[in-house]
Every structure is written in C-alpha cells, then in structure tokens.
Design brief:
The chain has 123 residues and is an alpha+beta fold. The protein is 57% helix and 11% strand.
Amino acid sequence: MKRFLFLALLAASATGLAADKKPTATPAAAEIGHLLDYLSQSNCQFERNGRWHSAHEARAHLERKLRHGRKGNADPSAEYFIQHAATGSSLTGKPYQVRCPGKPVVASADWFGAELRRRRAGD
C-alpha cells in the first residue's frame, strides 16, 4: 500500500511538473493567433473562389491551410501567414477578399495587413 501511495504521489508530481512546462506562444504565433481571432470575431465575410464564407468558416480554412503550408517553417511569421495562407487560393490563384458591413470589399492581404500594423502600433 505504501508503494502504491508513493507511485501515485510521484505520478501526480510528474504531471504537475509537465503542466508547468507548457510551451509558450512565440511572438509570431501570438500575432497569427490574433489575426485569426480578429477574423473570427469580426462580422465580416470571406470570399474565396467565388463563394462567400462566414468568418468562422474562413478561420477554419486558413488554419488548415497554414498547417499544411508550413513545410519546414515550424514558426512562420505573421507576414508568412498573410502571404502564404491568407492572400489567395493556392489552387486557382484567385485572391481572397473580405466584406464587412458598411465597408467596401477589400483584398484579404490588405485587411489582415492593416490589422497587423494596428496591433503592432499598439492601438
């Protein structure tokens, strides 16, 4: 019984230590996360290949595209994310667009770029 308690305490300690060593997000990952949050919390629509999608659908698509497009770039920058995932279709080459209520349609690269600049400026 003492041996069981000792092993249980040891396992609990190891689990607690492992939880304390969670990897922290890099600045680039935090910026990409912010851009994805900004998109999904917007009331905007995202156009790709002629179809408009909700912000949540667009976020899911861009997350998949980023995961598949990293290819050796384990920690891509926010600029890499915008250029390689959020700018246009890798199949058709058509640029993505963003349509927000009461505003003109803009290229997604410009929309994400403006938000990245705003965030970096601390606004």
